[in-house]
């Protein structure tokens, strides 16, 4: 099971990113542990300066803007 965190303050793009990851994982039948990090100090520990950020198993894979579905699918493979 992949541990995925969406980093962001709760903006519309952050919410869309969270929903996109959740729906893509469900469509692919992949079990994930999905969390949201809104604490700015914690977001900064990942070195993300532009949100939304996406962290998978402790590694930053995306920062800034909503990722496209193809990128999310690759992360889940």
Short descriptors:
77 residues, alpha+beta, Glutaredoxin
Question: Which helices and strands, and how do they pair?
Answer:
Elements: E1 2-7, H1 12-28, E2 32-37, H2 40-45, E3 53-56, E4 59-63, H3 69-76
Parallel strand pairs: 1-2
Antiparallel strand pairs: 1-3, 3-4
Q: What's the architecture in CATH terms?
A: 3-Layer(aba) Sandwich
Oligomer state of the chains in this structure: single chain
Rg over CA atoms, rounded to whole Å, is 11 Å
* Dominant shape: globular
What are the segments in which pLDDT stays under 50 over at least 5 consecutive residues? none
Number of domains: 1
Number of strand elements: 4
Mean pLDDT: 96
CATH topology group? Glutaredoxin
Helix content: 40-55%
Q: Describe the main β-sheet briefly.
A: 4 strands, mixed
């Amino acid at each position: 099971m992949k541990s995925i965190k969406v980093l962001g303050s709760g903006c519309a793009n952050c919410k869309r990113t969270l929903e996109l990851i959740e729906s893509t994982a469900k469509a692919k039948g992949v079990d994930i542990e999905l969390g949201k990090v809104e604490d700015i100090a914690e977001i900064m520990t990942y070195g993300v300066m532009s949100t939304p950020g996406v962290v998978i198993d402790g590694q930053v894979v995306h920062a800034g803007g909503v990722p496209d579905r193809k990128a999310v699918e690759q992360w889940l493979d």
